[in-house]
Amino acid sequence: MKKRQTRINYDKWGxxxxxxxxxxxxxxxxxxxxxxxxxxxFEYYYRFGGAQKVGPNFIGLGNYITVFTEGxxxxxxxxxxxxxxxxxxxxxxxxxxxxxxFTSNRLKIKAxxxxxxxxxxxxxxxxxxxxxxxxxxxxxxxxxxxxxxxSGLINEGIKFLDRTFTVRSLVAFMNFLMWFGNTTILLMAGxxxxxxxxxxxxxxxxxxxxxxxxKIVLPLLKPILLFVLVTSLIGGVQMFDIPQIFTEGKGGxxxxxxxxxxxxxxxMAPSKQYGLAGAVSVVLFIITVLLSVIxxxxxxxxxxxxxxxxxxxxxxxxxxxxxxxxxxxxxxxSTHKEH
Length: 339
Known about the structure:
72% helix, MetI-like fold, two-stranded antiparallel ribbon, 14 helices, globular
C-alpha cells in the first residue's frame, strides 16, 4: 500500500500563527486607540475624588479647544522636547563615534565583545532603580556633594534637585546612559552592512578619513539614522518613568521636567478626565506623526527630488509617445480614407 501524501496548507498555518498577534494587537492597542479618539469628543470625568461620575456628554471639539487655550499642553510638550534633545544630541554623536571605532579595520580594538556588553548594560537596568540611584547621588547630602565639599571645591552642598538646568540635565543624562548602547549597536550594524570595497577604493583614490565618512559612510547610513531618529523621537515624546520617579511626580522646580505623558497621567488621577486626556493624546499623536514626516523629508530630500525628476521624465516620455501614436493613428486613418 502506498502511503497517502498529504499536502501542507502553508496559508492556513500562516494565518494560525499570525492570529494570536492580531488578537493581542486589537485588544490591547487598536481598541484603546479608537476609544481614546472617541472619548476625546465627550465630557467624561469623575469629581469629588472619583465619587461622582459626569458624562459621557458629547461636546464636539470642546476638549480640543481647552487643550489649545489652557496653555499647559505646549508648556509640557516644550519640556519634553528640551529634555529629549539634551539627551539625544550627545547620544547620537557618541554612539556614532563608538560605532566607527568598533568597526574600524585600522584600530582593531581588542575585547570588543566586553565593551559592547558594558555600554549596553544600562539599557537593562530598570528606570525606577536608575532614577532613585541618581537622585540619591545628587541629593543635597549625597555622595557627590560630600565628595566636592571634602575636596575643597565647594563650601556647601549644591542643590542639584532644586535647579531647572541641573534637573533637566540629570534626566537627559539618564536617558542618554540608558539608550546610547542600543543606538551604538544599531549604527554598528549599519556600518558593517556597507560594502568595504567602496571605502577601500575611495581610500586608494586618496580620500581622507573625514572625506570617506561624510561622502560615503554617512549617506549610506541614512536609513539607519532615520530609524534611530524617529524611534528616539517617539520614545522621547513618551518619556514618563524617569522624570516621574526622579521628581516624585512633581515635575521638578517650576515643573521644568513635567513631560506631556506626566500631564496625561495627572489628568487621569484622581478625577479621571477621560475626555480631556483623550484630546491631549490625540493632539500628541498628530504632532508626533508630523514631526516624523518632517524628519523623513529633511533626511531624504535628495532622494525625493530624484524621484520627482524621474516621474517628470516618465511623464514627458509618455506624453511624447502619446503624441506620436495619435499622429500615427491620424495618418493611418487619413490614408485609409483615401484608399
